[in-house]
Amino acid sequence: MTGRAEAERGSAMLWASGIILLIAVVTLLLIGAGALAARGHAAQGAADLAALAGAQAQRSGRDACPSATKSAALNDAEVTACAVAGDEIEVVVTVDVRIRAGLGPWTTDLAGHANAGILTGAPE
Q1: Are the C-beta atoms of 111 and 94 separated by less than 8 Å?
Q2: Cα–Cα dist 68/65, whole Å
């Protein structure tokens, strides 16, 4: 019986190491997913602010798209489309996100979309 016990000596350490490694990997994946979600919210926030800046500029008699572009740049975002239709400005903003992984840089683009302006003929 002592031969088998000697052969299994240290196996608990191997199992514990494997479980700790698995927990570490899952934790890193959850942190990465959380960071990606936060950057997605930042893209949407930048789109909202850019659309509001453009609508305010349009209301003041200035061109809306340069104001929207400037607002997006202040939020580390880039305007990919800007259109003014009547009293409404539509701005699409993308934010570049880089998450570094063990195999090199993984990158993805996240987009935010927002509308802002004065609605004419809307029910009161």
Answers
A1: yes
A2: 5
Model-wide pTM > 0.85: no
Task: Please give the order of strands across the beta sheet that includes 78-85.
Answer: 78-85, 88-101, 104-117
- Residue type for 115, please? N
Are residues 50 and 76 in contact, defined by beta-carbon separation less than 8 angstroms?
no
SS (H, E, C) 41-100: HHHHHHHHHHHHHHHHHHHCCCCHHHHHHHHHHHCCCEEEEEEEECCEEEEEEEEEEEEE
What is the DSSP secondary structure assignment for residue 33, as one 8-state letter? H
DSSP 8-state code for residue 120: S
Return d(Cα 47, Cα 92) in angstroms, integer.
Answer: 6
pLDDT by residue for the chain (124 residues), tens only, comes to: 566 667 677 788 889 999 999 999 999 888 888 887 888 888 888 888 888 888 888 878 888 889 988 998 898 888 888 888 765 555 555 444 444 444 456 667 778 888 787 655 545 5
> Do the Cβ atoms of 79 and 15 come closer than 8 Å?
no
